[in-house]
Amino acid sequence: MFTAIVENRETACRPHGKLVPMRLATVAFLLLACLFHQAVPSIARTNAPEAAPQVQPYPMQPMLRLAQAKRSPNPNTVGIVTGRPNGTDFAIAQEISTVLANGQETGPRGEVALRIVPMIGKGGIQNVRDVLTLPGADMGIAPKILLDRLRASKELGDISKSLVYIAPLFHEELHILARPEIRNLADLAGRRVNLGEEDSGTEILARDILSRLGLKVTEVNVDQNAAAEGMRNGDIAATVFITGKPARWLERYAREDGFHLIPVPYTSSLEEDYLPATFTHQDYPNLIPDERIATLAVGSVLIASNSPRTSERYQRLETFVNAFFSRISEFESPARHPKWKEINVAAVLPGWSRFAPAERWLKQRRLGAPDADARAEFERYLDQSGNVPSATERERLFQGFLRWWREGKGR
């Protein structure tokens, strides 16, 4: 009945609607109904709870962007820029992340005190550039030879001031995987050789090594999977890869498939920046029979941006150093990568400044300072003697001097 009345009311109240003759009482009733119809929305608005005033979004946008710009990344998260996932530096970064994550207490929402995030980079110079420019790239792993060259060229500015090192890491070996008809480096002359992806650390260092050895090849720049396929069909003679042994990606290849590692001679032209190294059957049982294959190696370094002491990045790195150095013995487990056996976080990188909290941690535990003093004394001795040995000979002499120094100091 109420619906019918409302419908009749609306018809009667329309300005252009046709009014049906009605009794005076009926007309009066409908007139009151029309007045009530007009009043209902006002009454409803009056009785309803007051809605919160709408705020226009545009005045808030600049403030929101400013707040987001000031908001830092998670203070518990530290990023490490590495090379490709098949490289040793990525494996080392993953193990750092795994070991430091274990045994940490979690907060009420499951947060941990420290989280390490490996970041896949391009390697080489780009890793250094990322540490200098990317907000989340707190640290990076880079070859020492590239750091020295960038410092000399100033391609990225004065990195001796903008970068610090946390610790020298492992040595990376030069791998040259070749087709069966390639027996030595000389056989690669004029042939198509893959030097890795463009601007990668492998490409830069491989080109430098081949140039010092006087070997000219036709360069190819593809990833290792594409290079292996090119070797199978005879389009590519060999592929070069620089990483710490054993390289896991090489496990899929064998001599029976027509692949083998070729030796690299260690000549006087390489002594300044490279170290001699070898591959054995234990390193690559599928590729190497009972023999030793000579090759080269270059040291890698864990670097960081030289951030102000009051910055959040500095504080994150200090947290990382205290955790990493305190648990370094856990990385020597047989389950970890074999390269951990080479790593001595107290080793000194001549010509570079160590991150202050790392230096302080080592000195407090008398791990870094004595070796640093020995290095300084050794360098003074060389300066006085006028002897200028090669990098390899210099390191060999220093290790002998260091043994004498430690014995003399009762260490």
Shape: globular
Q: How helix-rich are the residues, as a percent range?
A: 40-55%
Q: What is the total tally of β strands?
A: 10
By DSSP (H or I, 4+ residues per run), the number of helices equals 13
- Mean pLDDT equals 79
If you compute it from the alpha carbons, what radius of gyration comes out, rounded to the nearest whole angstrom?
35 Å
Q: What is the number of independent domains?
A: 3
Give the SSE order as H and E letters. Answer: HHHEHEHEHHEEHEHEEEEHHHH
CATH class of the largest domain: Alpha Beta
Biggest sheet architecture: 10 strands, mixed
- Extract low-pLDDT stretches: 1-72
Organism: Bradyrhizobium archetypum
Pfam families: NMT1_3
Protein name: C4-dicarboxylate ABC transporter substrate-binding protein
InterPro entries: TRAP_TAXI (IPR011852)
